[in-house]
Amino acid sequence: MSAAILDGLSLGPQPRFLPPDILAQYEAAFGVLVVNGDSDAFMAGSARELIEAVNHETYHHLQTICTGFGLTRAEAIRATVIERVNKAGWQDIRDNPGWLAAQAVLSWAPGFVRRRFDFARLERLVQAMLTHNRRLAVAGRAAADDPSLAAAVLPGLFAALDGIRADLWAPRAGGLADGHVVEGAAVAFTAAVTAAALEGPEVLLAEDGAVLQAHIAAALDPLGEDYTALLAAAQARSVVPVAPWLLPAAALAMRYAHPGAAMLPLLDRLRAAPAADALAAAQALAGALPALPDAGRCLGTAREVWMRGETAAQVHDQPLAALEEAGLDEVAVLSDPLAFGTLPGPLLTSVIRFNDRVGAIGLEAGEAAARVACANLALRAQTRRRFERESDQAMARWAQGVLHRLVAMAPETAPSNAGQSPPAP
User: Fold this and answer.
1) 219, containing H or E segment
2) Angle at Cα 237 formed by Cα 216 and Cα 167, nearest 5°?
3) CA angle 397-401-407, nearest 5°?
4) How far apart are CA 39 and CA 354, in angstroms?
5) Angle ∠(126,374,188) on CA atoms, nearest 5
6) Which helix (H) or strand (E) segment is 135 a member of?
7) Of all helices (H) and strands (E), which one includes residue 358?
8) What does pTM read for this prediction?
9) CB-based burial of residue 82 (10 Å sphere; 0-12 exposed, 13-18 middle, 19+ buried)?
């Protein structure tokens, strides 16, 4: 990842919410890659595990911009979050009609009027009252079993997101869930990138893929069934290592509404080609994908979904345009570990959120901040406790300002007469 991604933008320290054992997480709906570490350590390349985790999550980003399933799912999450944010905005208006109206009037006032009547002081008062009321509202709507701010501010958000997640892990025809394809492919790709970097590119096809499969199996060994199910199901259908065909088949499966149902039938078709020709066979099959009723609608690539206008978001416009401009083939992007390090920067990610700062490629600070804020909501990044602490600090600053103003306005104390003779009677 180029250091250019850190240039020109710093939103300051971010709330740390990932547990220590989760080193990175990609929030596809808003194109934000969250790294559970500081930017300097990552850019210095000092932590191999962190870099592998970022590669894994970056592959999820590639799945989002290269497959119809990835982009459609990201859009479903985005639409859910934005719907709840809009509802919260209307609720705020119902809770604070007078103060919000006063805030609007103050913001629209001409400059000479603002100076004449000290509108800055009035604006601080209005903001203090809004902060106080919002803190009370959050406390009143807080869920006892969820410490996140979003659960209180956006009722129903996580129930809706949990429904989307449940669908990701619902078993499809053949036994695989869509999530098995998404996660299993990401582990396989990351293992292949690491193996090629450490042992050379020839390892990818050594012994017809047996060496590569050993690397993938080693990467999967400490992980749970969510990650291991793909390779296990695929290998159960073959007497030879399936590693060479695994990524091309997954890349095609994610062009269907239910990749879990599409994966194994597509793998069977590709295995008719020699291991060395697996990518070429997948590229040929991509031009005429078969109808697979159990897999649902054939969505195609993310670019095809984008061109059909089936996504309202502009979050991924930049990487999709970069993909188009570079003339890259989506199957190759998702299947060729050797090309990973040569992909153009704008394709890889738009926003990367470290613990100490936020970086972005080709985005204004305001847009990057908005994306990070929305991603923080979806990921439960900010707690009520932090919000309450920041609200209390804001109220304390306002109260101190009022106190200082009152002291400055107080009349001076009359001089003491101590030591003087009393007046004559």
Assistant:
1) helix 210-220
2) 75
3) 140
4) 6
5) 165
6) helix 119-141
7) strand 358-360
8) 0.80
9) middle
pLDDT at 262: 97
CA distance 335 to 243: 11
Instruction: Find the length of the chain.
Output: 425
Residue 174's alpha-carbon distances to 167, 178, 266, 377, in angstroms, are 16, 11, 12, 35
Cα separation of 181 and 183, whole Å? 6
What residue has token string 């793909």?
Answer: 230
Whether 113 and 107 have beta carbons less than 8 Å apart is answered as no
Locate 170 and state its tokens: 């619902």
For residues 74 and 90, what is the distance between their CA atoms, to the nearest angstrom?
25
Residue recorded with tokens 């659960």: 151
Sheet with 351-353: list strands edge to edge.
24-27, 32-35, 351-353, 358-360
Please answer whether residues 411 and 161 qualify as being in contact, where contact means their C-beta atoms are separated by less than 8 angstroms: no
Q: What is the mean pLDDT of the chain?
A: 82
d(CA 212, CA 204): 5
Assigned token pair, 88 = 């919260």
User: Which residues of the chain are under the pLDDT cut of 70?
Assistant: 1-17, 45-46, 113-115, 117-118, 134, 138-139, 143-152, 313, 349, 362, 380-425
Contact between 261 and 189 under an 8 Å Cβ cutoff? The reply is: no
Contact assessment for residue 204 and residue 192, using Cβ atoms and an 8 Å cutoff: yes
CA distance 296 to 244: 26
